[in-house]
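Hey, resending since the last one bounced:
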Amino acid sequence: MQPEPQVNILLADDEPENLTALEAVLEGLGQNLVKASSGEDVLRHLLYQDFAVILLDVQMPKLDGFETATLIRQRSRSHHTPIIFLTAFSTNDSLIFKGYSLGAVDYLFKPIDPVVLSSKVSVFVDLYRKTLEVQRQGLELAAINTELRQSEERFRTLSACSPVGIFLTDVAGRCTYANPRCQEICGFNLQDSSRQGWLDFVHPEDQERAIANWLTHLQNGQEYSDEFRLQRQGTTCWVHLRSSPMLSNVNTLVGHVGTLEDITERKQAESARTQIIQEQAARQEAETTNRLKDEFLAVLSHELRTPLNSILGWSRLLLTKNFDAEMVHRALETIERNAKSQADLVEDILDVSLIIQGKLRLQLQSVDLIQLIETMLDSLQPSLESKLIQVETDLDPAATTVVGDAGRLRQILRNLLSNAIKFSLEESKIKVRLAKQQEEESSLAQIQIVDSGIGINSEFLPYVFDRFRQADSSTTRSYSGLGLGLAIVRHLTELHGGTVQAESAGEGKGATFTVLLPLLKQET
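The structure tokens again:
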């Protein structure tokens, strides 16, 4: 602790030896002893210093002790300063009475008892210190009160003029204060309300959610933010409510403070903006669909014309020229191949038409996937051999039986394998895997066809199963086809209760197509 500051004690006597004696007695108090040898000296010291007590000799030249005391009392600053008269005339009652009438607090008669003098002065030193402390505390209290009044006035002004609603609640969430703007937004008067505040005005459609969130906020003591509608006098408005817990100096919850902001205009602007965005998106989607259909029709025209030109060309040659048996055989093979290609295109178009109309139906039966895969690979053997492609199979007998349409499952496999062959490089490898996969309570057959061909661009990968969508839809593209095969695969797979997924690390890095189909449940 820091030592208490010294206080001033004024010693007044015209005899130097008396001053020395007084100083010797009082120096043990550890205070600042100021000496004066005349009444004039006393008054001069009082101009610059305040004193806890004044020891004033009655018999002094020029201004005696009484005259000096009179002048001391005339100054407002020293009006209440304690004065102890020092005198050798102990029997003169009139002098004593005069001293007390001038405001003396005590008389000490010479010779002075050092113990008595020291104890009396100590009392006034303590009293002076306590008086200073009371004054200091009074000034602090006055400053605090002034600041509090200013703070309250600022709060009242801010609350009254705030563009957002402000409210206070107790610990239970009952409204204890709401500024004019809050009452205006909600359309209520705090004095006439049920003390629930904004809770009474939540729109019925938002009431359950908003009140549940608010009660959770009260229980958890966390910050709260929510948007909902209020219903007031037949009108509806959107509000944004924020609230935070109020804590005391000892970190105890004493209530909540919140703000309520009318965001109706913002919500209306957001709704209008959302509608515009949706309209733009719908228009863009329609334009994209129309563009894709136009591109598809151009590709369709090209794909139909190409085999037709070959058929017509060879037919005309057979009718106008005499070929040997080998050339005739080659011409007929070409005509047959292109006719079959054209028939496949027509079949895909018809399938897509049935899919769009929702008329595609399955003939369900038990299907052996291993047998189906092996049969399909056998039928595609000429295409595999023409490009010197090797097929590596890994077929799990535990995943062989599913319930489905054998013809449509064959179509799924043919489309996926044909794609793998078409987009694989010569002398490459295709892997065909069949495995059992367990998902929660269901067992699935997983068919994977992995090629090391041209791969799929990452930007096109999300659209690989869309109808009328091709990575290259120009009529000069490197690979033929309408781009309907994978769309048909996805729809047929989903009709069987399964899923299909495409994966690729990028262009030139091959692709993996995974089909998941529910396995036939084995009776136990």
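Residues 264-320 form the longest helix (57 residues).

Sorry for the duplicate.
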